[in-house]
């Protein structure tokens, strides 16, 4: 059966391409739909008005007439669709009107005839489609359909092919999901039938790479089924170039030698201060790197007290990493020597490659590296840090605070922002890696390594694009169950979205696809740079929540309101406080305070009230997370609040009770020191904001669900 349908579609596509066409006509689209079991109404092609009248008579009830022309893609725009036609007289009038409209729309259009189609019963219009995304390849789409699809843009995407469960999940991922379940007395649609349309389209585009877009718009969904009123198929001759693939073990083997090298050569090492080669050497030496450091410079005998070599081929023994600090025009010849030496990794700091239009030069070094089996980091990067190995292979400022956060950036400027943030917040890192042009090594290689690295607890990545979106998704899915992956995707606006030939293509702006696919992979997407850095800093120190019930304890009513808003905005649930718990909280708060949720203890209360209510929140197993709102008063100074909170949290941790606790501190400048103290003692706390602590808590919940540690996974 599958083989027969493939032969049918292959023969049709070959015939269309032989005619030099890239768009299928409606009758050709029906052949494909029938082959793949995509439900469409009965229809016939009428080449003249008499055939149209005869075809309409064979259908029971009114029909729809549509222009059939390979030169008219959007039939409605051309006035090429008339619905509800019944009776010979009306069929004739509609036939001539459509022909007239089509010629007025495009006088040169080749007209094959008029499609006479059985009219579908009323129902909910949805769209099912597929596009070929430059990053992720074949992507299937679903959303509200009809003529308003481009206005409402209520659409969701998944990697193709999709499983039945993934197809069903798409129905719940649009904003108007409730409509499909039935509202205001309307019955729900046949969800299985709609999901099957999605699944079958995803199979079709997976089987035939030359199908660049498919549009079923509208699909009429009813309680009895789902049928595509129109199918549009677009082909391409430009298939993407195959990227060289590396297996997981290959990646881990080369990354181990990159991140944990025993020997590093610096090509372009220099004694002259201010030179990149001098800065890299100094950082390696001053950073305490315990392996061998080999300067390479044909004009020097000694650099910074170490023997210099004329060529990297002269360096004795094995070398794990070659760091390039030479102009771009000399990189290719030096890379040949690195390849002959058998060095597995080249770190290319120089700029002057694809980012300046020198694509041929970048292609040349990639070819050399692939020929010799050398993995390339860069070019156009600041270098990299591997703190647990005391490795600082960069010309930027050194950093040696060890911790569990791995940070990567495609931009040097963002890399330095990462460094400054880490230093100012005392964030310990396992690595900071620049990716630059990503001529070879990219995010999926790093994800594969950091996912297995015992020194890394959280991975945060700034990226402007992905070379291979599917490889990234695969690496993310393998990593997310073990540790959070946070991504800041730059370029969120629609300005860069390319024009496309169908409704679905027009909606497939880069960011819309990225948003859904990253969510599908379980990645936490940060809205901005500071958010990414704060998520990375905070997530590792927070315990994983064991349930959805969030309770706010606040000393200020205003903060409580804003914290409640933030909880809702971040997709969290304020716990409905049961009567016994409400009574327990009331024992500790004044009569003019307020129990419920938020628990408002009021601002004039002493430290004992904060302590008692926090203890109760940690003690009760029905409460899963605490959000604390502190208000600076002389009665309970900031550091008193911070110390008592940290003490209580630590005490419960020793008893085996761990819950996420985040805090918002409002007050004078002393709250800044209190927040830093809380952070250092495992409580995520921020001054002057009610949004940020709850956003971090929301990110922790999203990761816990994606990792399968909490209900409602990806």
TrEMBL record:
Domain CoA-binding, residue spans: 258-353
UniProt xrefs under Pfam families: ATP-grasp_5, CoA_binding_2, Ligase_CoA_2, Succ_CoA_lig
InterPro entries linked to this entry: ATP_grasp_subdomain_1, CoA-bd, Ligase_CoA_dom, NAD(P)-bd_dom_sf, Succ_CoA_lig_flav_dom, Succinyl-CoA_synth-like
GO molecular function, one term: acetate-CoA ligase (ADP-forming) activity
Family label: In the N-terminal section; belongs to the acetate CoA ligase alpha subunit family.
Protein name as catalogued: CoA-binding protein
């Amino acid at each position: 059966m599958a083989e027969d349908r493939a032969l049918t579609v292959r023969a049709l596509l070959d015939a269309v391409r032989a005619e030099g066409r890239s768009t299928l006509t409606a009758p050709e689209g029906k052949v494909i739909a029938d082959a793949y079991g995509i439900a469409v109404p009965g229809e016939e092609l009428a080449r003249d008005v008499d055939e149209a009248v005869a075809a309409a008579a064979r259908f029971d009830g009114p029909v729809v007439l549509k222009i059939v022309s390979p030169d008219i893609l959007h039939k409605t725009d051309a006035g090429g669709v008339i619905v509800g036609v019944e009776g010979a007289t009306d069929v004739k009038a509609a036939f001539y009107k459509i022909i007239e409209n089509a010629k007025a729309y495009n006088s040169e259009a080749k007209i094959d005839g008029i499609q006479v189609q059985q009219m579908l019963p009323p129902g909910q219009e949805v769209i099912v489609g597929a596009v070929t995304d430059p990053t992720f390849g074949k992507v299937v789409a679903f959303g509200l359909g009809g003529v308003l699809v481009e206005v409402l843009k209520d659409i969701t995407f998944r990697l193709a092919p999709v499983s039945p469960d993934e197809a069903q999940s798409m129905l719940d991922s649009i904003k108007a999901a409730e409509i499909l379940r039935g509202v205001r007395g309307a019955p729900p649609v046949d969800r299985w039938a709609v999901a099957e349309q999605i699944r079958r389209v995803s199979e079709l585009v997976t089987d035939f790479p030359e199908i660049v877009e498919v549009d079923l718009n509208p699909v009429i969904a009813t309680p009895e089924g789902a049928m595509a009123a129109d199918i549009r198929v677009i082909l391409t001759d430009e298939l993407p170039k195959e990227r060289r693939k590396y297996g997981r073990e290959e990646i881990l083997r080369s990354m181990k030698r990159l991140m944990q090298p025993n020997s590093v050569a610096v090509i372009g090492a220099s004694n002259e201060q201010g030179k990149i080669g001098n800065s890299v050497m100094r950082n390696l030496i001053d950073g305490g790197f315990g392996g061998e450091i080999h300067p390479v410079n044909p004009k020097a005998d000694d650099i910074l007290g170490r023997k210099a070599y004329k060529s990297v081929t002269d360096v004795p023994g094995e070398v794990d990493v070659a760091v390039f600090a030479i102009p771009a025009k000399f990189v290719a010849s030096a890379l040949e020597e690195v390849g002959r030496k058998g060095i597995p990794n080249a770190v290319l700091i120089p700029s002057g490659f694809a980012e300046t239009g020198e694509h041929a030069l970048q292609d040349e070094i990639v070819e050399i590296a692939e020929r010799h089996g050398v993995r390339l980091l860069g070019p156009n990067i600041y270098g990299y840090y591997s703190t647990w190995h005391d490795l600082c292979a960069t010309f930027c400022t050194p950093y040696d605070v060890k911790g569990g956060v791995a940070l990567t950036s495609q931009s040097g400027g963002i890399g330095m922002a990462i460094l400054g943030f880490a230093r100012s917040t005392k964030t310990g890192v396992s690595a900071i890696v620049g990716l630059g042009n990503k001529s070879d090594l990219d995010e999926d290689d790093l994800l594969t390594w950091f996912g297995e690295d015992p020194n890394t607890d959280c991975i945060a990545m700034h990226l402007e694009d992905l070379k291979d979106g599917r490889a990234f998704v695969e690496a993310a899915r393998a990593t997310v169950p073990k540790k959070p992956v946070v991504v800041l995707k730059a370029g969120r606006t629609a300005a860069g979205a390319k024009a496309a030939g169908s409704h679905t293509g027009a909606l497939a702006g880069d960011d819309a696809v990225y948003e859904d696919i990253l969510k599908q992979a379980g990645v936490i997407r940060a809205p901005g740079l500071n958010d990414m850095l704060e998520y990375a800093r905070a997530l590792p120190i927070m315990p994983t929540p064991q349930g959805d019930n969030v309770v706010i304890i606040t000393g200020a009513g205003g903060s409580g309101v804003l914290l409640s808003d933030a909880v809702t905005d971040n997709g969290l649930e304020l716990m409905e406080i049961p009567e016994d718990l409400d009574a327990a909280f009331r024992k500790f708060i004044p009569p003019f305070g307020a129990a419920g949720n938020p628990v408002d203890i009021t601002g004039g209360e002493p430290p004992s009230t904060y302590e008692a209510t926090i203890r109760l929140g940690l003690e009760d197993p029905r409460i899963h997370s605490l959000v604390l709102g502190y208000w600076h008063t002389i009665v309970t100074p900031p550091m008193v609040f911070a110390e008592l909170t940290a003490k209580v949290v630590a005490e419960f941790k020793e008893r085996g009770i761990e819950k996420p606790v985040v805090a918002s501190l409002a007050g004078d400048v002393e709250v800044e020191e209190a927040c830093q103290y809380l952070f250092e003692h495992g409580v995520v706390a921020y001054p002057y904001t009610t949004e940020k602590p709850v956003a971090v808590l929301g990110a922790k919940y999203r990761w816990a669900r994606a990792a399968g540690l909490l209900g409602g996974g990806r």
